[in-house]
């Protein structure tokens, strides 16, 4: 038979267990689990800071025209900044490869469409979507294999409207070299308040509009 002293501790242990269960489901905890499991694909030691997220969102026009696609939504720092910028949930599509992080995004932003899948298959994931004016990328392009980067860059150019804007942040001073094959630089901003400091690049898609010959 348990003693009175031991029985008093049962509610406390149950309470601690519930707290630990809740804490393990927080965005930061989910991010850390993904970082340990897939460090190369995460590409960062901590979610993007609010300052970096705001700078990324600031590069996105908020005139209400066209859809905005975010690649690598993570725990939702940039998603939150895009919504605060004035991008309506109906305009926003977030693509996230990790099921656990996709679940976090759906929980945090129930009105935003979250697509679970790899950006290498972006054309397939967004095959029913048109009028994409902006693509925002949180993908760690410099830590991915060159072939994967080339496929992703081509896919972004193909789904993005001609003249559309591609926003990519990097922890390097210069942009990914493969981007110059399909995109022209538009602007660049350094964010010192992020860990580590990051640079936000905005590019213009050079793909020409398809023309149809009328006979």
Topology, pairings included?
Blueprint: H1 4-23, H2 27-37, H3 39-42, H4 50-58, E1 67-71, H5 77-85, E2 92-96, H6 99-108, E3 113-116, H7 122-125, E4 132-137, H8 146-159, E5 165-170, E6 183-191, E7 198-205
Parallel strand pairs: 1-2, 1-4, 2-3, 4-5
Antiparallel strand pairs: 5-7, 6-7
Helix pairs in contact: 4-5
Describe this structure in words.
This protein is an alpha/beta fold. The protein has a single domain (40-205), classed as Rossmann fold. It is 38% helix and 20% strand. It is built from eight helices and seven strands; from the N terminus they run H-H-H-H-E-H-E-H-E-H-E-H-E-E-E. The chain has a seven-stranded mixed beta sheet, sandwiched between helices. Strand 1 (67-71), helix 5 and strand 2 form a beta-alpha-beta unit. Helix 4 (50-58) crosses helix 5 (77-85).
Name of the CATH first level: Alpha Beta
Order of helices and strands: HHHHEHEHEHEHEEE
Number of domains: 1
Number of strands: 7
Radius of gyration computed on alpha carbons: 20 Å
CATH topology: Rossmann fold
Coarse structural class: alpha/beta
Uncertain parts = 19-24, 40-46, 211-215
Q: What coarse outline follows from CA principal-axis ratios? A: globular
User: What fraction of residues sit in β-strands?
Assistant: 15-25%
Give, in spatial order, the strands making up the sheet with the most strands.
Answer: 3-2-1-4-5-7-6
Number of discrete helical segments:
8
Q: Could you name the CATH homologous superfamily?
A: Vaccinia Virus protein VP39
Helix percentage range: 25-40%
The CATH architecture category equals 3-Layer(aba) Sandwich
Distance between the termini: 93 Å
From the structure provided, what is the oligomeric state, counting identical versus distinct chains?
Answer: single chain
Largest sheet: 7 strands, mixed
């Amino acid at each position: 038979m348990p003693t009175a002293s031991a029985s008093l501790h049962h509610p406390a242990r149950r309470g601690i267990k519930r707290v630990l269960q809740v804490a393990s489901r927080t965005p930061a905890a989910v991010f850390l689990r993904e970082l340990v499991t897939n460090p190369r694909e995460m590409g960062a030691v901590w979610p993007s800071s609010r300052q970096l997220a705001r700078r990324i969102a600031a590069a996105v026009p908020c005139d209400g025209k066209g859809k905005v696609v975010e690649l690598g939504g993570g725990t939702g720092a940039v998603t939150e900044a895009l919504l605060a910028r004035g991008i309506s949930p109906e305009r926003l599509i977030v693509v996230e490869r990790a099921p656990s992080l996709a679940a976090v995004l759906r929980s945090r932003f129930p009105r935003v469409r979250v697509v679970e899948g790899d950006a290498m298959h972006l054309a397939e994931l967004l095959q029913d979507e048109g009028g994409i004016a902006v693509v925002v990328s949180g993908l760690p392009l410099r830590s991915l294999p060159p072939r994967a980067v080339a496929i992703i860059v081509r896919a972004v150019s193909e789904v993005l409207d001609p003249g559309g804007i591609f926003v990519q942040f990097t922890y390097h001073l210069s942009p990914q070299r493969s981007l110059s094959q399909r995109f022209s630089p538009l602007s660049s901003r350094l964010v010192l308040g992020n860990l580590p400091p990051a640079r936000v690049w905005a590019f213009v898609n050079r793909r020409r509009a398809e023309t149809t010959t009328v006979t």
